[in-house]
């Protein structure tokens, strides 16, 4: 308070020299009333502002705690998501390997079936060729037989006389008679 009074005295002395200054009469300037009002306001506002600041501090602390809790929950969810991602990647690898294995088996099955089909077609073709060869041989044999019979028949007609025909008929009758 003494320092305050000195400051006021310095201003008052300076006022006399310069023309601007403070009135050093405390009663005329109402400094006491202003100081009482100021101290009263500080005392009253301190309690009001203190309680408002305390309420604000409690809200901020609550918000910080809620944020920390949300952060913990987010970290837990993140860790769970990472675990699920790892499990999903393992499942995807298994599916890929199974798909590759299945594709390999299908490929091998198709190749094996193709080989069997080729062998069956080859055997069928060989059988068809053998059958055709047999038919051609049979037709050739039939033609040869027909030609031989025609040649023998024409030779017989040229060489056969009525005496030979009689002998053949008698011989045939004898053979038939022996069988009966």
From TrEMBL:
Species this protein is from: Kappaphycus alvarezii
Annotated TM spans: 31-49
Parts forming coiled coils: 64-98
Entry superkingdom: Eukaryota
Assigned GO CC terms: chloroplast thylakoid membrane; proton-transporting ATP synthase complex
UniProt keyword Chloroplast present: yes
Pfam families: ATP-synt_B
Protein name: ATP synthase subunit b, chloroplastic
Keyword check for Ion transport: yes
Subcellular location: Membrane; Plastid, Chloroplast thylakoid membrane
Other information: In plastids the F-type ATPase is also known as CF(1)CF(0).
Keywords: ATP synthesis, CF(0), Chloroplast, Coiled coil, Hydrogen ion transport, Ion transport, Membrane, Plastid, Thylakoid, Transmembrane, Transmembrane helix, Transport
Annotated gene: atpF
Entry's Gene Ontology molecular function annotations: proton-transporting ATP synthase activity, rotational mechanism
């Amino acid at each position: 308070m003494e320092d305050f009074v000195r400051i006021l005295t310095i201003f008052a002395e300076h006022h006399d020299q310069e023309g601007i200054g403070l009135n050093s009469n405390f009663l005329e300037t109402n400094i006491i009333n202003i100081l009482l009002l100021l101290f009263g306001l500080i005392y009253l506002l301190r309690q009001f502002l203190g309680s408002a600041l305390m309420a604000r501090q409690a809200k901020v602390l609550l918000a910080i705690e809620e944020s920390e809790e949300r952060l913990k929950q987010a970290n837990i969810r993140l860790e769970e998501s990472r675990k699920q991602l790892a499990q999903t990647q393992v499942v995807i690898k298994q599916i890929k390997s199974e798909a590759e294995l299945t594709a390999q088996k299908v490929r091998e099955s198709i190749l094996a079936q193709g080989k069997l089909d080729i062998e069956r077609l080859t055997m069928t073709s060989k059988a068809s060729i053998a059958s055709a060869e047999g038919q051609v041989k049979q037709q050739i044999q039939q033609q040869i037989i027909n030609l031989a019979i025609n040649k023998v028949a024409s030779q017989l007609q040229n060489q056969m006389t009525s005496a030979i025909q009689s002998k053949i008929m008698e011989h045939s009758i004898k053979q038939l008679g022996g069988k009966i």
